[in-house]
Amino acid sequence: MSKKRMGALLLALALMSGLLAGCGGGSNESTVKVTIGEVTRSLFYAPEYVALAKNFFKEEGLEVELTTTAGGDKTMTALLAGNIDVALVGSETSIYVHQQGSDDPVINFAQLTQTDGTFLVAREAGSGSFDWNSLKGQDFLGQRKGGMPQMAGEFTLKKKGIDPQKDLTLIQNVDFANIPAAFASGTGKFVQLFEPQASIFEKEGKGHVVASFGVESGKLPYTVFMTKSSFIKKNKDTVQKFASAVYKAQQWVDAHSPEEIADAVLPFFKDTDREIAISVIERYKSQGSYATDPIVDEAEWNNLVDVMTSAGELQEKPAHKDLVDNSFAENAMK
């Protein structure tokens, strides 16, 4: 091929590439990458996976990378270090950072779940309605001290007239990931468990759900998308798009059945049985665990403060306005 013909061919290819890029809408050029660190992988966070599965983030021009940063302390460390852009974790972690006097506070901007996600599981099935007094004098396998599950659990026990430190043999030296296995092997007569472990134990006959800590402890900003104040100042448009995608997912979850939600999110839970997933989602949905909008309201925040105060984890009560920015959630809902 002559140099002249080669030049003409290269020019034609260049023009065609430019034309194809124009037909594509130039979406790649405007797409913003955002990295989320979630505290754990859980069906409790179903709206997050719906936002990914239904391309709600993509529709807003966001390319989201999801990582699981097992544990609230690890998730917050990753956020503060700049290894992730947004954390999905309990609001108590932002309060802990605030208590340490951070110059760059962590701001809660979009709520995902609004109740505790744990259940009280008994080794033996009782007859009739559950009597909380039956816990007294028993071995109780609880959650990690200072974490929201433990604080919400103890808050509920105190409401029921039970002193967790005096009326129970409280076991808290088991790592979060090993709690189900410890109970299955014989540790404790009662255990505080997340789903799907609670439903799996029921199916296998290893335990029986007798109460919900989510129902008993009331509404809380239990799991919230948050980021550093400095990130918000530099990326307001990105945070707004993120909140809008979350709201779309919340509305979708609210309008669809547990079966439809399970089918949407199961690609993120390849080892989870579909029937178990449906049961878990139905249980969380029926008790109102999935927030239907991203607002972190002040009443829920104050309930969180009460829970943390009861657990002895607060040096001072943090103001809602200092650690919550609802403007992005409000704009998403317009």
Automatic annotation (TrEMBL):
Species annotation: Paenibacillus methanolicus
Phylogenetic lineage: Bacteria, Bacillati, Bacillota, Bacilli, Bacillales
Keyword Phosphoprotein recorded: no
Main location: periplasm
Keyword terms of this UniProt record: Signal
Residue ranges of coiled coil: none
Cleaved signal peptide residues: 1-21
Pfam families, sorted: NMT1_2
PANTHER family from the UniProt entry: ALIPHATIC SULFONATES-BINDING PROTEIN-RELATED, TAURINE-BINDING PERIPLASMIC PROTEIN
Entry similarity comment: Belongs to the bacterial solute-binding protein SsuA/TauA family.
Superkingdom classification of source: Bacteria
Record localization: Periplasm
Record bears the keyword Protein biosynthesis: no
Name of the protein in question: NitT/TauT family transport system substrate-binding protein
Listed GO CC annotations: periplasmic space
